[in-house]
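Exam prep: given the inputs below (a chain plus magnesium ion), describe the expected output before reading on.
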Amino acid sequence: STPVAKVCGLSAAAKMGLIIKGGSHLEALAKVKAMAFDKTGTLTEGAFQVVELQNVYPQEDIYHLLYWISSLENLSSHPMAKALVEYARLQGIEPSKEVKDFKIVPGEGISGNVDGRVIEIGNAKLASAKRWLTNSQFDIKEEGITVGYVGMDNRFIGYFCLGDQIREEAADAVNELQKQGIHVTVLTGDSKAAARIIQQQIGENIEVKASLSPEGKMKKIAELRERWGLTAMVGDGINDAPALATSDVGIAMGVAGSAVATETADVALMSNDLRKIPEAVKLARSSLGKVY
Ligand code: ADP
Ligand code: MG
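Solution:
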């Protein structure tokens, strides 16, 4: 195709709320064979609601549990964090401003020292590594909900359940991509159960891979490239930056995503409307004047 056609495609894409950073990405988008989606904040709104908060021992009352949780989450940019800090504030609990040794374990959780106590918050992977649930009175079933486990000085002290919602256009967008002949996969750091719910809502014919670390997501992208060819990744940049960088076309969620992701991505979705992605593929294919 001609360079002129590519430039036209880019500005048409910008008009529909999609910034494609250069003709080579437009061409790649036209030829994409596989596309991977991050779950939280990408296929879902990432607008979490706290639906349950439970302490394990009576001495660690809900008030303190929430204080420790919000103190750590206040330093995190994960979509879960905002919901927890707001929930605490609604109960009059302000996060500590003196958290020490704050650490992020990507795809697993966070930790830090609050008032001399080591607090850890994370998913089932963390809970099982710490053996928090063995001999526990709690048999927690993660059915379509995201569970966070909380430990203090290595001891399991509580958990919370957060609900998130699939974006209303997610199923349409994915089904349209499939009609375009693109293999769609969901890659998530969340549990199998949470991934399964997404599969039920979008379609049984999408592939889902759960409990992935950021490196795990990156490896899956490499596998997709080997199996299908040109592979795109759609993510919000939180725990999926390596996968975005490894893909042939990195598509970042503009509004919901992290600023760095939007800057480094090949394509930025300014409206967060996932339907713009199959529309962009269509536009890319027609502006290159070929049907792939
Ligand atoms: P996804 O791939 O669905 O976007 P992430 O990779 O961002 O999910 O996160 C994976 C999991 O790690 C989350 O489902 C959560 O259980 C845990 N996690 C990550 N960050 C935090 C945090 N700030 N607080 C609690 N848990 C977290
Ligand atoms: Mg995410």
